[in-house]
Design goal:
Number of helices: 12
Largest sheet: 8 strands, antiparallel
Strand order of the largest sheet: 2-3-4-5-12-7-10-13
Strand content: 25-35%
Oligomer: single chain
CATH superfamily of the largest domain: Jelly Rolls
Length: about 325
């Protein structure tokens, strides 16, 4: 069963829990924890106030049914989100699962996010006021990506989303936050130091990637960018039987080296990394929205081997295609 809620409903749900537990939820002057156990499922949300403008939110949830939240466009603070357990589907079919994280700033795009039933979800979110993050960066003359700078300075209203993998060093830091051994003022100092350490590690990835992409972009002429986007469309239109890399390069009038560099600069992945992700998303949609069997879908998205398709689907979505079909295929209306 799937339950659909709006962002407004979701906020109201937590607001009701907070009002009912107002006194008992206060662990100290800086921390609150709100738990629930009802027809939706069970879990808790913990809020920790650090210095002015920096907050930690810890979410541990498990739902009885699939939850689909309809998101309305809204602005929110810069957020560093770390997923430790479980999986959720974000806007536009992007999956965020254990071992992954993101930096998001600006107005959230309208769309949906889905939480799977009977799956324990554990995530740690760090929210920081734009002005506070801006001070850290400006004071050290950090070469911040221009689109991120524009958002922090309130000069842009675009949505900035930078996904990443959680490194072992980040995992250690997250474990230390979740299992802080201290109390009182010492706890606050410890949690703040670990939070800033996480932010530093995550931002370093953003800066390193931005410098790398800028260095690559210097060898890509402006008129070559159109050719790279044309190559992307060729892959999308022929994903069942795509051209080889040399053929694709010839079709768009680029050599293979420029095509490889351009794809990574424009889309953050290789040409066939992009193709793989697109194939998997088409397969997921076919399994959800049609009555096609797994074998038909595998051949339909260009796989000659069913085991290869099943292995690729499981690696991408964390579930085998037959199980996914059983759980998610829509029943046609009579």
């Amino acid at each position: 069963m799937t339950i659909t809620v709006s962002s407004h409903d979701w906020k109201e749900f937590w607001q009701e829990e907070k009002q009912q537990q107002n006194d008992s939820s206060c662990l100290n002057n800086h921390e609150h924890i709100w738990s629930f156990s009802n027809h939706l499922g069970k879990g808790y949300q913990q809020q920790i106030f650090l210095r002015s403008g920096i907050f930690i939110y810890i979410h541990k949830l498990e739902f009885v049914d699939n939850i689909v939240e309809i998101i309305c466009s809204q602005k929110f603070l810069p957020e560093f989100g770390f997923h430790l357990k479980g999986k959720r589907q974000l806007v536009d079919g992007i999956y965020h699962q254990a071992g992954e994280n993101f930096l998001a700033v600006g107005p959230c795009l309208s769309g949906t996010q889905e939480w799977s039933a009977n799956t324990q979800i554990l995530k740690v979110d760090i929210h920081i006021e734009p002005s506070i993050l801006g001070i850290y960066l400006r004071d050290h003359n950090q070469k911040t990506p221009s689109e991120l700078n524009q958002l922090l300075e309130g000069k842009d209203d675009q949505f900035y989303f930078h996904p990443g993998k959680t490194t072992p060093q980040m995992q250690v830091c997250l474990h230390q936050i979740l299992n802080c051994p201290y109390h009182g003022a010492t706890r606050q100092i410890y949690l703040e130091s670990k939070t800033l350490e996480l932010i530093a590690m995550r931002l370093q990835e953003v800066f390193s990637e931005d410098e790398s992409q800028h260095s690559v972009s210097k060898v890509i002429r402006a008129n070559d960018i159109e050719r790279i986007y044309h190559a992307k469309e060729i892959l999308r239109c022929n994903f069942e039987n795509p051209p080889s890399l040399p053929e694709l390069a010839r079709k768009v009038g680029l050599n293979q080296r420029k095509l490889k560099q351009g794809f990574r600069a424009c889309f953050g992945t290789t040409a066939f990394g992009y193709l793989h992700d697109y194939r998997m998303e088409q397969a997921r949609l076919l399994l959800t929205d049609t009555q096609m069997g797994v074998t038909q879908v595998a051949y339909g998205v260009g796989y000659a081997s069913l085991p290869s398709f099943s292995a690729a689907f499981r690696k991408k979505f964390g579930i085998c295609p037959r199980t996914y079909t059983t759980k998610n295929q829509k029943v046609p209306l009579e």
